[in-house]
C-alpha cells in the first residue's frame, strides 16, 4: 500500500513541478523578447518529455527506464536550464541598475 502511495506522489511531483511548471516557464521565455526564444523552446521540449514521463510512471509504476534513466536525464537538463536562466536574469538586472 505504501509503495503505491509513494509512486503516486512521486508521479504527481514529476507532472506538476517538472512538467507543468517548467512548461509554462518555457512558454513564457519562448514568447518574450527579453531572452533567446530557442532557450524557451528547449524548456518546452524537456518539460513536455517530463510530463509524459510522469504520466507513464503513474500508469505503469516504477521502472528502470522511466524512473532511473528518463526522469534523471530530463530533470538534470531542466535544472541546467533553470541555472542558465538564473544567470541570464542576474546579468540583465546588473546591466539595468
In summary, what is this structure?
The protein has about 100 residues and is an all-alpha fold. The protein has helices at about 1-30, 35-60, 65-95.
List the helices and strands and how they pair.
Layout lengths: L1 H29 L6 H24 L3 H33 L1
Helix pairs in contact: 1-2, 2-3
Q: Tell me about the biggest sheet?
A: none
N-end to C-end Cα span = 55 Å
Structural class: mainly alpha
DSSP strand tally: 0
Q: Secondary-structure element order, as H and E?
A: HHH
Total helices: the number is 3
Please describe what this structure looks like.
With 97 residues, the protein is mostly helical. The protein has one domain. Helices cover 89% and strands 0% of the residues. It is built from three helices and no strands. It has helices spanning 2-30, 37-60, 64-96. α1 packs antiparallel against α2 (37-60) and α2 (37-60) runs antiparallel to α3 (64-96). The protein starts with a helix and ends with a helix.
Q: Key features?
A:
single chain; 97 residues; mainly alpha; 0% strand
